[in-house]
Amino acid sequence: MGSLLRKATTYDVLREHGIDRRRFVKFCTMMAAAMGLEATVVPQIVEALETKPRLPVIWLHGLECTCCSESFIRSSHPIAQDVILNMISLDYDDTLMAAAGFQAEENRKRIMKDYAGQYVLAVEGNAPTADGGVYCTVGGETFLSILQETAENAKAVIAWGSCASNGCVQAAKPNPTGAKPVHKLISHKAIVNVPGCPPIAEVMTGVLTYILTFGALPELDRYGRPKMFYGQRIHDKCYRRSFFDAGQFVESWDDDGAKKGWCLYKMGCRGPTTYNSCPTFKWNNGVSYPIGSGHGCIGCSEENFWDNGPFYERLTSIPVPGIESTPNEIGTVAAGAAMVGVGLHFISSMARRATQKKEEAPDKEGR
Amino acid sequence: MSTAVPEFDPQEIALHPEDYFRRQLVWQLPVRITHWVNAACLIVLFLTGLYISHPLLAPSGEAVRHFVMGRVRQIHFVAAMIFTVSFLARIYWFWMGNAYSRSGFPYVWRPEWWKDLFRQGTDYLRLERGHAHLGHNSLGGVAYTLFVIFLGWCQIFTGMAMYSESNPGGFLNRVFGWVLPLLGGSFTTRMWHHAFAWGFVVFAILHVYIILYDSTQYGNGLITSIISGYKFYQKGDFKED
Fold first, then answer.
1. ipTM of this predicted complex?
2. How far apart are CA A256 and CA A242, in angstroms?
3. DSSP of A53-103, one letter per residue?
4. Which residues have C-beta within 8 Å of that of residue A263, sequence separation ≥ 6?
């Protein structure tokens, strides 16, 4: 990687790595298509990557499993691996950097000072807040304090993956470490959430390319996710949608419907409630995605997806403490209780009427 | 029973008119129409809703020949739109209609309202006729406010939010989309929509029973009143609302 102090552009670094211009422009075109932009934007992307100094990025790892990084380095375009790793100057990344120990931490402090207000903070994982944040420490400091300190002078914050975006497994009930997603720990900063466990590599690349090209965050939805990648439900782009509308569902694994590739709705597929680009980009160089492989979507890019279980049921239990039942169970009990109450009232009023009739019998003529 | 009516005698009636049942138009036409439209829609919505959450039919052959799930959803959505219009029309009539269209409104800040609520509750428990209201009594008003108005709004907001998901950024999505993050995502929104639906079942059981009970106990023509609009009252009943 070229030194950051030379302020090399992405294109410079790519050329150093032997990538010719033709492949470079092809990458720019692919990125424009991925972001849903029109062809006239391609020259803008080319120009940005040619002229703008590379984006300094500090990549922090909190409570997480590094699946976001694993996904990121497996971007599907032939030269994407190079491009991604060269496009941004990854100055500090616990997992990927060469420096170690005090040297590494010094590196982070130096970037924060030299590039104050210019660097992008990419956060993978989230921070535990219980007991002063002791459940995740790096170099003797709690991750919570590192996160807040590094975010202070960042230009923008990217929350990679479901951990950073909405908490994921460590924030699932009962959340003993008090893990909280980034947007609940950092305020007054532009934050882009890129959920998914992990997010799709092309989505991650696309977000970075957008920030580098336009110098701003992409348009975000209500959850702070880029609309271009999280604007639509998996269900609405699913190739099995026709089976859903027809009413042809897989009833059990390995049944006839499963072999015919029918809709996985009844197997608890979260496609109708999940916003992501899986049907568009797919995974592993565009080979397939969960539904394509015959398994329902588990909604890994949605908030609380671990708590909304079980994965193979359509209805979860009511998320009210003390209630461990699904809406149908509660509804049946409530309706049953109403029937019993009504029945008791009816029986007693009948009994009352019978005794009254006996008493009133001689007096029937009068009013 | 106290409601037993003596043989018809025009002279006697003319002498003591207050001793006899008299007729009063209570439910105006819009109230009756919205009542039955809401009832029909809720039945359709509950049944199609259950089907959508657990589709039973399994048509065989090519998908292109079938539209079972799509049709059930379509019926659900159409019924939902009709219900919404009818629901809003009834709310409009709350202000525009006669005094009975506003009867039962929970005036929780008025001591008389609480007194009436207590009186009606004990009358039901003691199986006594007491003094019937021509409109809704306080207890009925609580039931309508919680089960119809509150649940109705819950279902309209959650339902419209989910319906809007198929057209992100569209009009309905902009108006109702905020409901989804508020309830913790579109999965939990579905869960609540499903749970709230059972409230209408509980309401229907209580509503139908109380109507039958009141109608026999009070002799005020309650059942036919939602078709004809007329109810009957006698001395001591609350005529005003």
1. 0.87
2. 17
3. BPEEEEEEE-BS-SHHHHHHTT-SSTTHHHHHHHHEEEEEETTT-S--HHH
4. A240, A241, A243, A244, A248, A249, A250, A269
Q: What is residue B233's predicted lDDT score, i.e. its pLDDT?
A: 84
- Put simply, whether A173 touches B (Cβ < 8 Å) is no
Q: Given an 8 Å threshold on Cβ–Cβ distance, is A244 in contact with B165? A: no
Residue B28, chain A, CB below 8 Å: the answer is no
Lowest mean pLDDT among B111-125, B200-214, B226-240: B226-240
| H or E stretch at B227 | helix B222-228
pLDDT at residue number A364: 45
On whether the CB atoms of residues B99 and B136 are closer than 8 A, the answer is no
The Cβ of residue B158 has, within 10 Å, a number of other Cβ atoms equal to: 26
CA angle at residue A80 from A64 to A270, to 5 degrees?
Answer: 50
pLDDT reported for residue A85: 67
Q: Supply B107's token pair.
A: 């005036």
The count of C-alpha atoms lying within 13 angstroms of the C-alpha of A204, restricted to the half-sphere facing its C-beta, is: 33
Instruction: Please tell me the predicted confidence (pLDDT) of residue A79.
Output: 55
> What pTM was estimated for this model as a whole?
0.88
pLDDT tens, B130-146?
Answer: 778 888 989 999 999 99
Interface mutation target, options B21, B69, B77, chain A, most CBs of A under 10 Å: B69
Task: Give B98 to chain A, closest Cα distance, Å.
Answer: 31
Q: Please give the average per-residue pLDDT across B158-186, as a whole number.
A: 93
With a cut of 50, list the residues of chain A below it in pLDDT: 1-3, 78, 363-367
> Nearest-CA distance from B97 to chain A in Å?
32
Q: Which residues of B touch A304 (CB under 8 A)?
A: 184-185, 187-188
The chain A residue lying nearest B54, using CA atoms, is A266
Phi, psi of B215 (to 5 degrees): -65, -40
